[in-house]
Amino acid sequence: MTEMLLPDAAGIARAAALLRAGELVAFGTETVYGLGADATNPRAVAGVYEAKGRPRFNPLICHYRDAEAAFADVVSNDVARVLAGALWPGPLTLVLPRRAGSRVALLTGAGLDTLAVRVPAPEVTRRLLGAAGCPIAAPSANRSGSVSPTTAQHVLDGLAGRIAAVLDSGPCAVGVESTVLDLAGDHPALLRPGGVTVDAIEALIGPLERLRADDGERRSPGLLRSHYAPSVPVRLNAMSVSPKEALLAFGVPIAGAGTVYNLSATGDLIEAAARLFAGLRVLDHDAMRCRLGGIAVMSVPEVGLGLAINDRLRRAAFPRA
Ligand code: TXA
Ligand code: MG
What we know:
The chain is of the alpha/beta class. The chain is built from ten helices and 14 strands.
């Protein structure tokens, strides 16, 4: 049963308490409704991917109460500060390098070393972010492949029964998603047109990079180049393992590996998704330290979140030059 919450003090407090407890809460912003989870809680973030039914881990935008909170999780620069000063709060998302000490879960950024941050405008949204006391990771609150919701009823149409609550702050004023800018590269680049116009941005910082097709591909999330990829070979669907290999296990581990990281001893796909990016990093590190030849991966069922987990594992296993 999904709770419908009013945008008053009690509703905001309830939504914030649910988020802190690791539950999923949809909430209005000026652009579209977001499907929110505590961005620092990998299990909650795994629940977002599951509720949306996404076949792969796209990186999620982290929402903050103000620019100061946002820039505590990413490394800002002059361009970011100018844009934030002029256009935040508002429908603008900035992609910047993740700060080393950030508590934001690796799964939130789909394992990338950048993070998308934004400060939404509506008073209710900002009060929610303040009350939650954590960054909120939120994609649009629709099932994968459907259109983005701009009312609480749209959210329920797609996600009723799959999420804990919807904070109903009325129809979204802008109605299209935020503009996404990549400020982590050499030159600011437009990744997604949206609520803030390119003209408004270029008036502040000069011309944006126009992505050529191959550049767009290079920067588009989900590709190997931009994703964290282990430095040792990755072997999928392992039925046996040698002492010269590290094992990424799922369920009861096969015996004989040099070192083991279990995604989920009970075979729980949500737990496995939550631990996937950390597991790849830990085993890569162990493999280097102990001079192991590679990472063997046990098979993960191709259902539910298993689709996204396997998509990511196939990318990690893809041979690199
Ligand atoms: O208006 C919005 O942005 C809404 C509201 C809820 O804030 N959110 C939204 O989220 O549209 P979503 O997940 O549907 O779209 C996020 C976009 C995707 O195109 C994603 O690829 C991009 O932001 N993105 C997120 N993190 C990124 C990163 N680290 N690098 C590049 N692109 C990133
Ligand atoms: Mg979307």
